[in-house]
Amino acid sequence: MKNTKKETLRRLKIIEGHLKKVIKMVDEDKYCIDVLQQSLAVQNALKGADSLILDQHLRKCVVEAMKKGNSKKEKSIKELLRVFQLSKK
Predict the structure, then answer these.
(1) Scanning 30, 31, 46, 55, which has the fewest C-beta atoms within 10 Å of its C-beta?
(2) What angle in degrees, to the nearest 10, is found between the helix axes of 32-57 and 2-27?
(3) Domains of the chain (ranges plus CATH)?
(4) Distance of CA 50 to CAs 44, 53, 66, 71, Å?
(5) Cα torsion angle, 60, 66, 68, 70, sign
(6) What is the full DSSP assignment across 10-39?
(7) Alpha carbon of 33 to those of 20, 23, 26, 37, 46: distances in Å?
(8) CB half-sphere exposure, 20, CA atoms < 13 A
(9) 46 compared with 62, residue with greater pLDDT
(10) pTM: predicted TM-score of the whole model, two decimal places
């Protein structure tokens, strides 16, 4: 878990730097296509970080919930479904 946390934080800090660059580009009225390309890169990087977080959640939290029984299992399933429904909006 520590390696995953460390890697997730590393990626998020890189994303933060890229997002600051996008904000600066907008503030400086840079060419829209260049801003869009940088913005899309940030979005893709966030998806990668999301994948790491989801992987860790599945391996730790969901596995533990499945072992604990029906109420925890159902709650875990509902949480995952809600997250996936939000990602489609």
Answers:
(1) 31
(2) 160
(3) 2-87 (1.20.58.1000)
(4) 10, 5, 22, 26
(5) positive
(6) HHHHHHHHHHHHHHHHHHTT--HHHHHHHH
(7) 17, 14, 11, 6, 20
(8) 6
(9) 46
(10) 0.80
Residues 55, 20: Cα–Cα separation, whole Å: 27
Integer Cα distance of 81 and 75 in angstroms:
10
Give the chain's mean pLDDT: 91
Q: Are 59 and 5 in contact (CB under 8 A)?
A: no
Spatial separation of the C-alpha atoms in residues 2 and 86, rounded to whole Å: 27
Give the Å distances, CA to CA, from 10 to 25, 29, 49, 52.
23, 29, 9, 12
- pLDDT of the residue at 2: 73
